[in-house]
Amino acid sequence: MKDLIVLVADKDAEQVLKALLSHRQQSLRIRAVDYDIFVHPERDGGVRSRCVEFLRAYTREYRYALVIFDYEGCGASQEVSELETELQQSLSASGWHDRVAVIVISPELESWVFSPSRRVAEVIADNQREIYNKYYDPTTRGKPTHPKETMLQIMREAKVQRSSALFYELAQNVSLEGCSDRAFQKLVGVLREWFGLAHPAP
Q1: Would you list the domain boundaries of the chain?
Q2: Which CATH architecture has domain 2-109+177-195?
Q3: Minimal CA–CA distance to 119: which of 80, 82, 55, 167?
Q4: Do 120 and 113 contact (CB within 8 A), yes or no?
Q5: Do β-strands 100-105 and 2-8 pair in parallel, antiparallel, or remain unpaired?
Q6: Which of 80, 100, 120, 164 minimizes the number of CB atoms within 10 Å of its CB?
Q7: Would you say residue 178 has pLDDT above 80?
Q8: pLDDT tens string 10-22
Q9: Measuring CA to CA, how many Å separate 79 from each of 70, 86, 132?
Q10: How many CA atoms lie within 13 A of 112 on its CB side?
């Protein structure tokens, strides 16, 4: 039985989780985790509507399950917290019990990108600070209202090619302390609860 199965909506999220679980154990204060990540072909809407069906077959193969998708584009009508609770209850009833967590990122994964770390500007703006600061300055304002569009605009102006590998690089190198996003903090809390150094592998 492996430690963890993760269901995500796209390659960007897959790369973030790979980097965190493979290279950031010390920063997360977790032990090494034996995991698999699956990308749902129907993206955010598919994860929301089919995660219970998708994960039901794996209840005896993994100790824990994690479901992560963006609120933007998932097609939900209820609030984020209600959606997480509803899906978690359905997954628990399908056989996962208390071994599952649902994390809905509002509005989208790019919310995790913007932090005070200087490494963000290095990666998405090729270290062109004037371009980066034009759209995001952590000392004077909070996260962008539309983080995906903001990130793409910065990359266009800085002539940085968009790639899922950028998300891997960000997750591998940017300080985790600067990310105050609710969904990211929930992810950290869940991982520490399940795999914290005080909870060694059985």
Answers
A1: 2-109+177-195, 113-163
A2: 3-Layer(aba) Sandwich (3.40)
A3: 167
A4: yes
A5: unpaired
A6: 164
A7: no
A8: 999 999 999 999 9
A9: 13, 11, 31
A10: 31
Of 193 and 117, the one with more pLDDT:
193
- Which range, of 88-92, 126-130, 140-144, 184-188, averages the lowest pLDDT? 140-144
Distance CA 15, CA 111 (A): 15
Q: Is the peptide bond before 107 cis (omega within 30 degrees of 0)?
A: yes
* Contacts (Cβ under 8 Å, ≥6 apart) of 162: 152, 155
Banded model confidence at residue 200, pLDDT cuts 50, 70, 90: low
Say which amino acid occupies 15.
Q
Max CA distance (Å), the chain: 52
Q: What are phi and psi of 69, to 5 degrees?
A: -155, 165
Specify the pLDDT at position 116: 85
Token code pair at residue 54? 């998708």
Tokens of residue 161, six digits: 């090619």
Burial of 81 (0-12, 13-18, 19+ CB in 10 A): exposed
pLDDT tens, residue by residue, 24-47: 999 999 999 999 999 999 999 999
**pTM for this predicted structure:** 0.94
User: Of 139, 53, 50, which is closest to residue 94 (Cα–Cα)?
Assistant: 53
% of the chain at pLDDT higher than 90? 88
Of 72, 178, 191, 45, the closest CA to residue 118 belongs to 178
Q: What is the dihedral of CA 2, 6, 11, 16, to 10 degrees?
A: -90
